[in-house]
Design a protein that fits this description.
- Helix 5 crosses helix 6 and helix 13 crosses helix 17.
- The chain has 21 helices and 13 strands.
- The chain has two domains: about 240 residues, Rossmann fold; about 190 residues, Rossmann fold.
- Helix content is about 45%, strand content about 15%.
- It is of the alpha/beta class.
Length: about 500
């Protein structure tokens, strides 16, 4: 009997390319949920590149409604599948404080959620897929179908950034990377110190991120082209048919973009004048790297710890009296316009907290700190490679390391910090983790793929709501065949492993 694969396909394009290659390798039935704005949608309606048995255009099924939500249905859904729905939707960036264009009411949010739940149940009932293939979810509706598939026993093949150089990893659970939860049971062929040092370079994927950030500095000509195309050709129907575009009148978007650049300059000036560029690395200090406030890694994966200023205050109250807390913003924060000045001011008002300039190397702060604390991020993994303890507030794959402590109760944080500071590090465990993770990673560079996609399709490398001619899409797949073959090989390896199990 043929296996059934359900693909979630959006403007990222990676899984459309994957389906294009996988259909040549697997005797299976393919289905797809398409999540795009209106202009890219036209290509998917007529494409012949992938033989999908059936497709659903997500936003065609999610309509603005003046009816009251069916709370009994939502209550039953929540109980049946053990999915906390408010935890999913209240942190959705389009419903939350990050949406500057439209304020959704409670009933509107719940009505959208009801339609999403019914749509996903109907799709899964109809096709009964063996696998769902999707990216690590950036939005609540993708997280919703992932959790629904998990509850129904459907195998999840989720593509995540591995945080090892520029590689990715295909997993069922992005909180654990499907790793064994007891490292004591893992055998380790003894690695020499020099070999570990060589491997240690690989964990720092910041080099890849910095390169991506450099490539993402758009040219003036590119910005002008994107602006003209947006004004003249962008599909204004998105504002009626796609709730992620609600309220986005063109004049409002242009005005907000101008304000964004003004706000960003003003906030960066504050950082220039009120954060430390020269840092004392010889005093006892704890390092807290800020995450991006509107990023899925925080909103989806640490939904109860999204107020990082409050987290900093909790840490500041919990550290030993002779320690200083160093706080530094994420190096991508500039792309989001930096944080509000009042947030930086709140950090600076704390007497045992120092705000570090965002250009200061995180590597030096991690290397010289006594402990690294983060909500959920790669800094705690980098700390382990430096034989430094760390504390995280939510689940993360490397919290299986004994040197990574997870906060279970805020009231226990002072005790947890003292324990972490006073417990010796056994470097054997990071060698074991390194061995486990490197056997599972896929040599597929997510940021390189995004850069190539932007150059190939986006107007000015910026505007995504553009038409994708099928011939151009095929050219993109064939021209980058080696890159996508690595991704396909990774999925085939995972599928074969799952099939054998």
């Amino acid at each position: 009997m043929k296996k059934k694969y359900l693909f979630w396909i959006d403007i990222v394009m990676a899984h459309f390319a994957l389906a294009y290659q996988l259909q040549q390798k697997l005797d299976a039935d393919f289905f797809a949920i398409i999540d795009t704005p209106n202009k890219p949608k036209k290509m998917f309606q007529n494409q012949k590149l992938v033989n999908f048995k059936k497709t659903w255009f997500f936003h065609d099924h999610i309509k603005k409604s003046f009816e009251n939500p069916d709370l009994k249905y939502l209550e039953g859904f929540e109980k049946k599948y053990q999915i906390d729905l408010w935890k999913l939707v209240i942190n959705e960036r389009h419903f939350y404080k990050f949406n500057k264009f439209f304020k959704f009411s409670k009933n509107e949010i719940l009505k959208f959620l009801e339609q999403e739940c019914k749509l996903f149940e109907n799709i899964l009932d109809e096709i009964e897929p063996d696998y769902i293939i999707l990216n690590e979810p950036p939005f609540h509706h993708q997280k919703l179908i992932l959790e629904l598939c998990r509850a129904r026993g459907i195998k999840i093949l989720c593509l995540c950034i591995s945080r090892f150089e520029a590689s990715t990893i295909i997993v069922e659970n992005n909180a654990t990377f499907d790793l064994p939860q007891n490292l004591d049971l893992i055998e380790l062929n003894e690695l020499g110190t020099s070999e570990l040092k060589i491997k240690k370079k690989g964990v720092n994927y910041n080099k890849s991120n910095l390169r991506w950030a450099k490539e993402r500095k758009f040219s003036t000509i590119g910005k002008l082209k994107a602006l003209i195309d947006y004004i003249l050709f962008s599909d204004s129907k998105n504002t009626q048919t796609n709730y992620t575009y609600y309220g986005r009148k063109k004049y409002k978007v242009i005005f907000d973009t101008l304000l964004f650049y003004i706000r960003r300059q003003k906030r960066y000036r504050y950082l220039q004048n009120n954060s430390k560029k020269i840092v004392d690395l010889h005093i006892p200090f704890i390092y807290f790297p800020l995450a991006l406030d509107d990023d899925a890694a925080l909103l989806n994966d640490a939904p109860l710890f999204t107020n990082q200023i409050e987290v900093i205050k909790h840490i500041a109250k919990s550290i030993p009296i002779n320690y200083q807390l160093y706080v530094k913003d994420h190096f991508f924060a500039g792309f989001r316009g930096w944080k509000e000045i009042k947030q930086y001011q709140e950090i600076n008002e704390l007497p045992n907290v120092t705000l570090i300039h965002p250009t200061y190397p995180s590597k030096e702060l991690i290397k010289n700190s006594n402990i690294v604390i983060s909500v959920r991020g790669s800094a705690s993994l980098e700390a382990a490679y430096e034989n430094k303890p760390s504390i995280v507030f939510d689940s993360i794959p490397h919290d299986i390391l004994p040197s990574v402590y997870k906060v279970k109760s805020i009231t226990e944080l002072p005790k947890l910090i003292k324990t972490a500071l006073n417990t010796p590090i056994n470097p054997t465990y990071i060698k074991k983790y390194d061995k486990l993770i490197r056997k599972r990673i896929v040599d597929f560079n997510w940021s390189d793929m995004e850069t190539l996609r932007n150059e190939q399709f986006y107007s000015g490398n910026i505007l995504s709501d553009v038409e994708y001619p099928e011939s151009k899409v095929k050219e993109f797949f064939e021209g980058n065949k080696i890159m996508f073959q690595k991704l396909t090989d990774g999925y085939l390896k995972k599928i074969n492993l799952e099939y054998r199990n």
